[in-house]
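Entry 14. Ran structure prediction on the chain below.
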Amino acid sequence: MLNSWTLFAIFTGYVAILFAIAYFGDRRARIVGPPARKPWVYSLALCVYCTSWTFYGAVGRAASSGWDFLPIYLGPALMFLFGGRLLQRVIRISKRHNITSIADFIGARYGRHQAIAMLVTSIAVVGVLPYIALQLKAVSFGFAVTSSTVR
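Output, C-alpha cells:
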C-alpha cells in the first residue's frame, strides 16, 4: 500500500491542518467574539465520543455479548433527550462560579474543599486512562492497516 514515511507525512499534515483550523477559529472568536449559540460544538463533541470508543468498544461488545453495547449509546441519547433542564442548570452554575472542570464543580458543591477536588481529579485521571489507551490502539491499528503491516 503506502510507504510508512509517506503515511506518517500524510497523518502529520492532517493533524497540522486540524490545529491550524482550531488556531484560526480561536483567533477569530477573540476578535469577533464567540457566537451566541454553539450547537455544532456539542455535535462535534458527540462525534469525538463516538470515534474509537464506538469502533473498539461498542462493536467489540456487540460481537462478544450481544445487546450489552446498548448502554454506550443509550446513556448519552437519554441525557440529550430528557436531561436538557439538568444540563442548563449545570451550565448556569458553572458560569456563575467560573467553574471549568468536574473537580471544580464537585469541590464547589461541597464548600470549595480542595481535598475533594483533588480526589475527583484523581478518580477522573484513573477513569480516563483506558480511553486514552483505546485511542492509542486505534491510531496504531489505523496506521498498521493503512501501511498494510497487519498480519
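The mean pLDDT is 79. Will compare against last week's run tomorrow.
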